[in-house]
Amino acid sequence: MKVVIMAGGKGTRIATVAADIPKPMIKICGKPILEHQIENLKVCGLTDIILVIGHLGEVIQEYFGDGAKWGVNIEYFVEEHPLGTAGALFMMPQLTDDFLLLCGDVIIDVNFNRFIAFHKAHKAWASLISHPNGHPYDSSLLVTEIMSPKEVGGMPEDTHRVIRWMNKEDERLYYKNRVNAGVEIISPELLKETMKNFTPRHPENPNKIDLDRDVLKPNIKSGKIYAYDTPEYVKDMGTPDRFHEAETDMLKGLVYARNLKNKQKAIFLDRDGTINKLAGFVTNPEQFELIQDVTDAIKLINKSGYLAIVVTNQPVIARGDCTFEELQTIHDKMETELGKKGAFVDAIYVCPHHTLAIVVTNQPVIARGDCTFEELQTIHDKMETELGKKGAFVDAIYVCPHHTDKGFEGERPEYKCDCNCRKPKPGLFLQAAKDFNINLSQSYMIGDSDSDIEAGQNAGVQKSLKIGTSEGKTLLDLVNLVLSY
C-alpha cells in the first residue's frame, strides 16, 4: 500500500519551537518528526512513500533524498500553491489503489497492518483512526452507528460506521470522546465520488480542497466511512505545549509502548462509587456526578504506561430502568466531564445483566412455634424496605423453617424433620440454582457463621467468605474482595 504524507505545513502555531524549518522537520528526541514516521512505516512493511511538500520543502528533500538510507522509496509532490489538506490527492495519477494518508506533524506509533486489515474487512471508502484525548472539546468528534441487540441478553453492536461528524464549533451537550486523529486509509473510489458533486469553496484557487469538510464529511451518507478505535499513540504537534508533552512521552518510552504489537497494561476502574458518586441506580445523565479528584487520578493513568478502562455492572438495563441509549448518554456525560479537565478513559465495558442477590437462611423459629410465616414475611418485608431506602435490594429469599430439636411449646410438628435445605446442607442453593439458572461454580457465598461457609462448600460455590475474618470485617469488604477477583 502506498503512503502519502502531507508535509507542507508552515507551522505558524509552533513557530516558537522552530521557525526556520518545515514543521515535519522539527526534531523530537534527536530526530525529525517525519523520520520517526518513516521508521514506523518501514517496520510495518510500508515502503512506497509520497511526500507532499511546499513551504521550505527543499529542506525535506535534502534530508531524505530518495529514502534509500531508511530502506524506503520516496517520491515528492511539490505544491506550487497551497492545495489544502486534500487538493494534492486529486493530482496524483499513481493513486490507483487504497492508500494510507498521514499528516507530517503527527507523532505516531501504530500497528498499521492491524489498521489496514480493519479497512479491508469493512470494504471502506475511508477508515479513520479515532481515539480519546485530553481536549475533545476543541477536536473533531466521530459518532458511529450502534445496532440494537440481536438476541435476548445480547449487547448493542458498534458497527464503527461513521454517521455523524462533529466539528469543534458544532453545538454539543454530551459526547463520546472519539476524536478524529488525522490518520486515514482512503480508496480512490472516495476521490471519484467527491468530484461528482464537488463545488470549490475557494473560487480563486479551485484546486484547494479540505479533506475533512470537502471529502470525508460529505460522504458520510454513503455508509462507507469507518472509525478505527485504537489507544495507540497519535498526537499532533500543533502547539508548543503538545510538542513538549509528546517529547516527554517519547523519552519515557510511552510512544512505542502503546503500539498494539506490544502487550498492554491496564488499570481497570469500576464506575459507580469509584468514578461517580454513589446515589442508588443512575438512570439518567442528571443523576451522574463525578467524585472530586477523580479527573486527577485518571489523568495520572493517562500519563502512565497504563490504559484506563472502565468495567461496570449496569443492572439498570436488565431491570428495565434504563435503555442502552440512555446508558450511552450517561457515559457520554462522563466522558464529556472528564474531557473538560483533560482526562479520558480508553474504553468502557458494560455488563447489562442482573446478577442475583439471594438470601438463604435457616429460620427454626417457624418449627419452634416462635413465629408464624406471616410474621416472618413481615420481618423480611422490613428488611427489603430498609434496603430499598438505601438503593439496594435482594432478588429472592429462600427459607428453611425446619428444626430437628423437639419439645418447644407451640412448635409446628409438620416442620420437624431432617431436611435437605437447612444449612449447612445445600438444598436452598440448589433450589435457587434451578429457579434462576445459576452457575454455582461461578458464584460466591458470604455469611457470618461456619454453617454458612460449609453450606457454600457443599453447594459447590467457587468460594465461601466469612464476615469478621482477616479476609474482610464487613460485608462491604468481602463484596469488594469478590469483585476484585
Write the topology of this structure.
Layout: E1 2-6, E2 27-28, E3 31-32, H1 33-43, E4 48-53, H2 57-64, E5 73-78, E6 99-103, E7 106-109, H3 112-122, E8 126-131, E9 141-147, E10 157-166, E11 179-186, H4 188-196, H5 211-216, E12 225-229, E13 233-236, H6 240-251, H7 254-257, E14 265-269, H8 294-302, E15 306-313, H9 316-319, H10 324-340, E16 347-351, E17 358-362, H11 365-368, H12 373-389, E18 396-400, H13 427-436, E19 444-447, H14 450-459, E20 463-466, H15 475-484
Parallel strand pairs: 1-4, 1-6, 4-5, 8-12, 14-15, 15-16, 17-18, 19-20
Antiparallel strand pairs: 2-3, 6-11, 7-13, 8-11, 9-10
Characterize this entry briefly.
The chain has 485 residues and is α/β, with parallel strands linked by helices.
Features:
Spore Coat Polysaccharide Biosynthesis Protein SpsA, Chain A; Rossmann fold; 3 domains; 3-stranded parallel beta sheet; 15 helices; 20 strands; 29% helix
Descriptive overview:
34% of the residues are buried. The mean pLDDT is 86. The chain has 15 helices and 20 strands. The strands form seven sheets. The protein has a seven-stranded mixed beta sheet with strand order 5-4-1-6-11-8-12, sandwiched between helices. A three-stranded parallel beta sheet has the order 14-15-16. The chain is elongated and about 105 Å long. The chain has 485 residues and is α/β, with parallel strands linked by helices.
Distance between the termini: 45 Å
CATH architecture of the largest domain: Alpha-Beta Complex
Q: Rounded to an integer, what's the Rg over CA atoms?
A: 30 Å
Binned, the helix content reads 25-40%
Mean pLDDT equals: 86
Organism: Bacteroides ovatus
GO molecular function, one term: phosphatase activity
Keywords: Carbohydrate metabolism, Cytoplasm, Hydrolase, Metal-binding
GO biological process, one term: carbohydrate metabolic process
